Amino acid sequence: MSEHQYHPTVGEMSSDDVVIRAARPEDCKEILRMIKELAVYEEMAEKATLTEDALREDAFGDQPYYRALVAEVPSDGRDETRLIGYAMYYFCYCPWLGRAIYLEDFYVEPEYRGGGIGTSIMKEVAKIGVKHRCSKMQWVCLNWNDVAISFYKKHGGKDVT
Amino acid sequence: MTSQAFVIRAARPEDCGEIARIIKELAAHQGLGHKETVAEEALREDAFRDDPYFRALVAEVPRDVNSPDSGTRLVGYAMYYFCYSPFVRRVMYLEDFYVEPAYRAHGIGTSLMKAVAKIGVESNCTKMQWVCLNWNDVAISFYKKHGGKDVTVEENWHLFRMDREELLAFTEA
Is A89 one of the annotated active-site residues of the chain? Predict the structure, then answer.
């Protein structure tokens, strides 16, 4: 088992226990782990070849190619924390409406689902969009992913394809 | 017009007035001339800053081919930005490109698209993406001729969107 012995379940955790914050360079190892977990779920495991260094350089180098938020929970009952979710996003543009925000990826570890963390992460990205005067948020979804499609439509997303 | 008569170059802050005009023309061309488009000042602020929201190339021709000192005007543009994929890192995104009707069929559109693709290659982008309306047969043929694939058809990707109204409702809920 990992060094993190204590895994508070969604039922035990209050929403105060989950912190959604901007990613830091030292988070990249855990973000990579979660990217690989999401790739397995999307049946694209062989495509997740990115390295931790590349992830770090691309977000925290001279020019950010993406930005990320992470969801953090307490671990081991002490001051330690671990990451159980992330979102990757970047800014785009539309000649009609100007600034837009693009949600590239977001993920919550399976045992932490059902408690609203995914919604909170997506909401935080949307809030960043609103704060930057973005007129829309866009993302893609595979057309067979009914769970994701229901989730998006429930929150006001439209399938523009 | 000869193929040497046009120049594709990076947009400059002073081009934003012309780019705004071109965007408005594109809107009118699509029957959406009544809709608001991004103003010149916003374009300038958003493209020419440390962390730009977009970048642009412009297609420039002499105002008067017979008079070298007549100055130039812009007859087309391409808007692009960098995106990201956790699988392949940097991605080039072609948001828009347009050539005024009178200047079409001279390869300017292909040159604009090629120039964006070249920037993508030079910037280590692994792919270039863009959207297209599925009824736009002319554009679809053009893209397929140059090697573009429709990944909605081939890979089942759908584009989702929340417009400003949905964004505000979602974030305030």
Answer: no
Q: Dump the DSSP string for B31-88.
A: T-TTS----HHHHHHHHSSSS-S-EEEEEEEESSTT-GGG-EEEEEEEEEEEEEETTT
Token pair listed for B137 = 């047969």
Quote the minimal CA–CA distance from A102 to chain B in Å.
Answer: 9
Task: Say yes or no for a CB contact (<8 Å) between A93 and B87.
Answer: no
Cα separation of B22 and B41, whole Å?
15
Contact: B162, A157; criterion CB under 8 Å = yes
Q: What is the pTM of this model?
A: 0.88
User: A130: which 2 tokens?
Assistant: 């609103």
Distance CA A34, CA B157 (A): 21
DSSP B103: G
Distance in angstroms (rounded) separating the CA atoms of residues B173 and B168: 8
Q: What is the DSSP-derived secondary structure letter of residue A95?
A: T
Bridge partners of residue B83, in order along the sequence = B91
Q: pLDDT digits over A46-97, tens only?
A: 888 899 999 999 999 988 999 999 999 988 766 688 999 999 999 999 999 9
- Of A115, A123, A134, the residue nearest A157 (C-alpha): A123
Q: Are A55 and A32 in contact (CB under 8 A)?
A: yes
Residues B31-42 pLDDT 10s: 888 888 999 999
CB within 8 Å: A142 and B157: yes
Kind and range of the H or E element at B153? Answer: helix B151-155
Supply the ipTM of this predicted assembly. Answer: 0.89
Instruction: Kindly identify which residue of chain B lies nearest to residue A28, measuring between CA atoms.
Output: B86
Q: Best interface-test mutation with B: which of A96, A97, A128, A143 has the largest number of B CBs within 10 A?
A: A96
The answer to whether B158 contacts A135, with C-beta atoms less than 8 Å apart, is: no
